[in-house]
Amino acid sequence: MEFTAQLRADQECIERALKNYAAQWPDYGPLREAMTYSLMAGGKRIRPVLTLAVCRLFGGQAEEALPFACGLEMVHTYSLIHDDLPCMDDDDFRRGKPTNHKVYGQANAVLAGDALLTAAFSVLASAALPPERVCRAVAVLAQAAGPAGMVGGQVLDLLGEGKDLGEEEILQIEALKTGCMIEAAARLGAIAAGSTPAQEEAVADYARKVGLAFQIRDDVLDVAGDAAVLGKPTGSDQSHEKSTFVAKKGLAACEAWIEELTQQAIQCLAPFSETEFLRTLAHFLAGRTA
Amino acid sequence: MEFTAQLRADQECIERALKNYAAQWPDYGPLREAMTYSLMAGGKRIRPVLTLAVCRLFGGQAEEALPFACGLEMVHTYSLIHDDLPCMDDDDFRRGKPTNHKVYGQANAVLAGDALLTAAFSVLASAALPPERVCRAVAVLAQAAGPAGMVGGQVLDLLGEGKDLGEEEILQIEALKTGCMIEAAARLGAIAAGSTPAQEEAVADYARKVGLAFQIRDDVLDVAGDAAVLGKPTGSDQSHEKSTFVAKKGLAACEAWIEELTQQAIQCLAPFSETEFLRTLAHFLAGRTA
Predict the structure, then answer these.
(1) Which of A100, A150, A183, B264 has its CA 20 to 30 A from that of A114?
(2) By the 8 A CB rule, do B208 and B179 touch?
(3) How far apart are CA B92 and CA B103, in angstroms?
(4) Do B25 and A114 touch (CB under 8 A)?
(5) Predicted confidence (pLDDT) per residue in A52-93, tens digit
(6) pLDDT at A237
(7) What DSSP string runs through B106-127?
């Protein structure tokens, strides 16, 4: 299948599966609605798409990886809800819509995030895969999202506001805050397919490069992007006094860096066949405008 | 071993294990300190003690259940941190110490809670038990803590503030908010021991009765307890305008109800031998003063 058609098919498959999971949550006050509001808010589903693609690359059935892909997307969604809270980044808009706490209030936004994070592990545990693989998926996702991964990155990110961080410090924050989850997305696909350790490490490496390029693009778009296309105001890094790659190196050097990382990511796939989708995905993410 | 000695031995074993897990978290800003502050804040460890005791009842090695017990305690701790936040119950003291957000600020308190919840699943996944049991433990804990359990209960609890709820509504809130996790604690012990489904259901039933008695005692202590012994001010239910069992039924009826539930809990253990610890635990929790 051609890249755009496959991407759309996977995105639709993920949307349907997420909607089905959401329909099973009980209807206690505004909780399900608040969880669903952010979960179905038009995300690009990059991470779960990566999970499905890697599963396919290693000969697995993409549908078998769907619970891993959807669980990871729920964790990603919870992190956005909590990041947007007034005590964190205090953002009013996300993907062109008011943020969760703007609609449901702070208490419900905290709880909707908590519930999505917890439900993610229910979804992982429901996968129809050998229990060894499910256990490893739980371990990998919890490691990537926890204190040694995404949450650790968010703590350092908040701590760095208003400070002039060095490039190494920015790299560490981005690797933890964004990179770990993109890497986990690739690993979950490999785990679902029952890959070898070497295969899993190769796609983890691919994902780290793609993830960093993705984050540099994010910084670039925050300075030079179109707010209407992004669905949120630009300049938020500056208003939050965050050190960014663009501020450190300039736009041109960042563009060259994105290109270099994309080439390196593609080289990680050299040992494998039928890599066209993942190669095109790397270029697609590097060149995105939203 | 005599009850008090066994209880103390189990509590010490859990304290040590929790401390070891905490020592492995990375040192990103104040995150590990904030997580550890609440995790090691002198909780009574009722839930993990129950996990170990049930594992022992069904012939398992208590140490094998330790990762399940500690993971569950981390989830319990995260829920206390988030419940105390200004946008939730807005409490300043917990177990005689300033609440997490009072010490580390709201952003770090939200993130410390998020990190504890996530780390809990890392800890579960690390158990040296057959992967089928680990998967089931993940499913049971996520179900109990998630939107159909504890978080659902907290949403209903906040929604009920200032309203005159009926007894059925209070029962539902307490079953979700507190009961689900106490039931999960018993189930995790049974799962660790590789119990039969009938054995697991029997201790789940025991735990639901004990859990409800525990919660009614909580309401009683909030009215008639000693703030110095409790480590937090009494009268907080009234100041939050929460409907309680005591307000509905009066103190004497609540005392009788606690006694009845404790007897029912003990009856659930009738099919088993060596139940002395769990029988005494039921009385101990029903009669607690803190």
Answers:
(1) A183
(2) yes
(3) 10
(4) no
(5) 999 999 999 999 999 999 999 999 999 999 999 999 999 999
(6) 81
(7) HHHHHHHHHHHHHHHHHHHHT-
CA distance A168 to chain B (A): 15
The tens digit of pLDDT for each residue in B48-65 reads 999 999 999 999 999 999
* Residue of A83, A52, A25, A74 whose CA lies nearest to A232: A83
| Helix residue ranges per DSSP H, chain A | 3-24, 31-39, 46-57, 62-83, 100-104, 106-125, 131-145, 150-160, 167-174, 180-193, 197-224, 227-230, 236-239, 245-249, 251-267, 276-286
Q: What SS3 class is residue A45? A: coil
Residues 6+ apart with CB under 8 A from B166: none
Q: Which residues of chain B have a CB within 8 Å of the CB of A88?
A: 107, 110
Contact flag A121-B142 (C-beta cutoff 8 Å): yes
**pLDDT for the residue numbered B241:** 82
A176 vs B contacts (CB less than 8 Å): 28
CA-based nearest residue in chain B for residue A87: B107
The answer to whether B97 touches A133, Cβ cutoff 8 Å, is: no
Distance CA A143, CA A137 (A): 10
Confidence of residue B236 (pLDDT cuts 50, 70, 90): confident
Residue B227 has pLDDT above 90, yes or no: no
Provide the phi-psi class of B175: left if phi over 0, else alpha when psi is between -120 and 50, else beta.
Answer: alpha
Q: Residue B25: name the closest of A212, A155, A170 by CA.
A: A155
Closest residue in B to A121 (Cα) is B142
How far from chain centre, in Å, is Cα B182? 5
Nearest chain A residue (CA) to B107 = A87
- pLDDT at position B240 is 80
Cross-chain residue pair B28–A118, CB shorter than 8 Å: no
State in Å, rounded, how far the first CA of chain B is from the last one. 24
Q: Which tokens go with B220? A: 């009683």
Flag if A131 and B134 touch (Cβ within 8 Å).
yes
Taking a C-beta distance cutoff of 8 angstroms, is the pair B111, A124 a contact? Answer: no
Whole-angstrom distance, CA of residue A9 vs CA of residue A56: 14
> What is the DSSP-derived secondary structure letter of residue B225?
S
Check CB contact under 8 Å for A28 and B152: yes
Which helix (H) or strand (E) is B94 found in, with range? strand B93-94
CA distance B76 to chain A (A): 12
Residues of A in contact with B25 (CB under 8 A): 147-148
Q: What angle do CA A90, A91, A92 make, to 5 degrees?
A: 125
Amino acid at site B141: L
With H, G, I as helix, E, B as strand and everything else as coil, classify residue B72: helix
Tokens of B266: 């003990």
Mean pLDDT calculated for residue range A18-46: 96
